[in-house]
Amino acid sequence: MEHALSLFVRSIFADNMIFAFFLGMCSYLAVSKEVKTSAGLGVAVTFVLVVTLPVNYLLQVYVLDPLGLGYLSFILFIAVIAAIVQLVEMVVEKFSPSLYNALGIFLPLIAVNCAIMGASLFMQQRVQLDPENVKAIANIGDAFAYALGSGLGWLLAIVALAGIREKMEYNDVPKPLQGIGITFITVGLMALAFMCFSGLNI
Q1: 100, 120, 124, 122: which is closest to 112 by C-alpha?
Q2: Range list of H helices, the chain
C-alpha cells in the first residue's frame, strides 16, 4: 500500500507526464484555453489511463511475457486504448454534447495521445525493475495507482495552464509574444517549478 501511494504521488508531481516527459503536448496546448474544456479533457484522459493501463499490465504480465510475445505489446496496447477512447467518446457525446462539441477533434485524438501510450510503455519497463525500486510496478494495485496519478498529473497541468491563459487574456502581453509564444514561456516556467519535486524521496 505504501509503495502504491508513493507511485501515485510521484506520478502526479515528480514524474508528471507533461512537465517531466512532455508527453501529450499537442492536445495540452490546443485545448488549454478555457478551464471548463480543459477539465473535461483532463477527466477523459484520466479515465482512459485508469482503465487502459491496468488492462495493459494484465496483458503484459499474464499473456505477453509468459508466451514470449512481448513484440506484440505496441499493437495490443494501442488496440486497448482505441477501444476505451471510443467508449469515452460515445458517453461524452450522449451525456454532455456541449463538452463533446467544445473538445471537437481532440476527443477522439485521445487514442493517439502519447501520454497514454507513454504511461503503458513506462509501465512495461517498470514491471522489469527491482521490486524495491520506488518506480517499480509489481502488481495490479501499483498499475492502478500509477495510472490514476499520471492522469491526475495531466489534469492538474492542463487545468493550471488553462487558468493562467484565461487570466492572461486581460494582461498586456507584448505583441511578438501573444498567442503560442507566451504559452510556451508559461509552460517552461511551470515545468521549472515542477522540477523542485524531482529531488524529493517520496
Answers
A1: 120
A2: 2-12, 25-31, 35-59, 65-67, 73-95, 97-103, 114-127, 140-168, 180-194
Sign of the C-alpha dihedral, residues 189, 191, 197, 199?
negative
pLDDT at 202: 63
**Lowest mean pLDDT: which of 9-13, 111-115, 121-125, 163-167?**
111-115
pTM for this one?
0.90
- Sign of the Cα torsion 85, 88, 93, 99 reads negative
Q: How far apart are CA 150 and CA 8, in angstroms?
A: 8
Give the Cα separation of 161 and 195 in Å (integer): 16
What are the structural domain ranges in the chain? 2-197
Over range 166-191, report the average pLDDT. Answer: 89
